[in-house]
Every structure is written in C-alpha cells, then in structure tokens.
C-alpha cells in the first residue's frame, strides 16, 4: 500500500513521497544512520576532548567528564528530542546500556595513548549508529515530515537529502530487491537491516582508516573488528526499527480499513 493512503502518513508533507513501507524503512534507516554517523565523526572527538579538558580544569578525572559529555550529547539529547521512541523506561534502558559501554570501553583501553580525539570518536560511535538508524524509520512511520530530506542546506544536503545523491538510488535498489523476497514484515526487517548495516560499515570504515597499530592491538589485532562490530550494530538497529515501523503502518492500515468499512 502507498504510504500516502495511510492515516498519519506522508501525504500532508511537501517532502519526499514513499510508495511502500519497505521503501520508507530503507530510506529512513539509511539516512538516519548517515546523519548519526556523520555527527559522530564531525563532533564526537571534539565533544569528548572538551569534556576531558573541562574535567582537568576542575580537578575531576578527564575520562569521567569526557564520557559524561558524550553520554549527554549523543545519548540523552537525542532520546529527549526523539519523542516517537516510546516510553521513558525504554529510554532509560538505552541510556544505561550506553553508560555501560562507555565504562567498558575506557576500562578496556586502560588509558593507553591512541590519540587525542580517536578514543572519543570510538566512544560516541555506537550512539550515532544505533540511535540514528533506529529512530528515523519509526519517525517516518508515525507521520514525520520529510521536507528536510529535500530542503537541507549546503553540505547537509549531501548527507541528508533523499534527492540529488546516491543514497536515494541505493535505498530504492535495496527496497526493490527486498520486495522481491518479501513485501511484508520480513521485507521491512531485511530492508532496515541491510540499509543500516551498509551505512554503518561505511562510517566505521572511515574510523578504521584513521586508526593505527596501537588501536589494532586493543581490538584483537585488527582495526576491522571496529567495522564488523559497528556493522552488526547497524544491522540490529535497522532490523529492529523495520519491525516496529512495519507494525505501526500495519496498525494504521487496519484502522483505515475499519474506517472505510464503517463509511459504507
């Protein structure tokens, strides 16, 4: 069913129109992962380093304040703004998992010198991939606007625009491929998983490119362990989001069918 026929769909917007739930999930997962991943690459190191320096100035361990900065900006703030992600205790679980990851990462690195900004990019990376990939398909399924896909200014258009770059073609190709296999729940899950995983791998590959042997030793001798872990996270987040988005759209279709039946 065309998503414009569903109550709460995208007919009310002037942005991009999706013609199937699978296409919507694929585009959302891909663009959410790209936006979250690029935010981490551009800002993660700076935010963590500034937090670290602030802690040193006030006599608090820099690792603590750096992690707190990452947790607040890339965890708390997106979850606070993303009202479509569900109940408060769901968000609390996500934030607790994020805090546990930050603690485990810095215990694992043990204060080793892997660069000024690199450890903070690694700290923020799972937040950007998982939250961006997971949130965007659900937001679209609940009738979120898509004008920003079309009207994003400057360099953001190259990252976020659904029209005018290769992300659109990739998302449409994956959606078409998946639709051949299954056009229902399984298709939405596969589409979200594939698109989330593809972008997550690309983002993580950039992180791997900037690593060195000291980083590789921390990750079982291979920098690509980072890319494999990040890709797995993107696959899980995209597949989970696809499942939820499909359920939301399916409920909307059922309500529409009942409304049409009652009008007869």
General shape: elongated
Count, helices: 10
The topology string of helices and strands comes to: HHHHHHHHHH
Taken together, the total number of domains comes to 1
User: How would a textbook summarize the main sheet?
Assistant: none
Beta-strand proportion: under 5%
Unreliably modeled segments: 1-13, 158-164
Backbone structural class: mainly alpha
Q: How many strand units? A: 0
pLDDT averaged over residues: 82
Fraction of residues in H or I helices = over 70%
**Quaternary organisation of the protein chains:** single chain
How far the N terminus sits from the C terminus, by CA atoms, comes to 21 Å
What is this structure, in a nutshell?
This protein is an all-alpha fold.
Secondary structure topology:
Layout: H1 21-58, H2 62-81, H3 88-109, H4 118-141, H5 147-151, H6 154-160, H7 166-181, H8 185-209, H9 213-218, H10 224-263
Helix pairs in contact: 1-2, 1-4, 1-7, 1-8, 1-10, 2-3, 2-4, 3-4, 4-8, 4-10, 7-8, 8-10
Overview of the molecule:
It is a single chain. The protein has about 260 residues and is mainly alpha-helical. It has one domain. The chain is about 75% helix and about 0% strand. It contains 10 helices and no strands. Helix 8 runs antiparallel to helix 10. The radius of gyration is 20 Å and the shape is elongated. The N terminus is likely disordered.
